Amino acid sequence: MTRPKKPRRRQTRKTTPHDACRLSPETIAEIFRRLQEGNPDPTSELEYINPFTLVVAVVLSAQATDVGVNKATKELFAIADTPEKMLALGEDTVREHIRTIGLYRNKAKNVIALSRMLIEEYGGEVPRTREALETLPGVGRKTANVVLNVAFGEPTMAVDTHIFRVSNRTGLAPGKNPLEVELGLEAVIPDPYRLHAHHWLILHGRYVCKARKPMCEACAISDLCTFEGKSVAA
Fold this sequence. Notes:
With 234 residues, this protein is mainly alpha-helical. The chain folds into two domains: 21-43 and 155-224, Endonuclease Iii, domain 2, CATH 1.10.1670; 51-143, Hypothetical protein, domain 2 (Endonuclease III, domain 1). The chain has helices spanning 17-20, 25-38, 51-60, 66-79, 83-89, 91-97, 104-122, 130-133, 141-150, 161-170, 178-188, 194-207. It starts with 16 loop residues before the first helix and ends in a 27-residue tail after the last helix.
């Protein structure tokens, strides 16, 4: 008696970030062409003096607004724009300067700890690799990507809540988590737009494609977007 053959399992192809994109390459290029046309030279809204103060500002910006961080760091950076000066201030003084920012106690600890690490392990200089940046207290992948992009001109994608929302709504880079969205964006954004793509998307999400009420009527790419909840017809 022969045994019945087991049914063969269907071979399923694993999807890649590029597969998840619901837009054509031509549409993607047009999206960024329009975003570039509206803001040819985008910059970070965080105020900083050098790579060190940028690291500190981005660490402080977690669960806080750029406006709030800028108000808190104006006087702080005037007296401490290097790891050595920041460490000399001490945690108590740093804490007093940033007390208007959410989670300021823990953030003050991280600022002092990362200043010490920069001095002891990196000669007081901000490292230029993601791996090294992520060893600093309070610095995760998103913060590292911001520093690489803004301070060192690397075409990285720092996915925050705004970019995550815009990428999913538009169909540009759908993903279940920030890393999926980051990899998706890296896979589809045309080379000429990669350097500034992070800023175009974050500013678009912050001022146009808002979380609660997207301003579709004022959106330069509404006709290219796949968002089903659009308030205007494409």
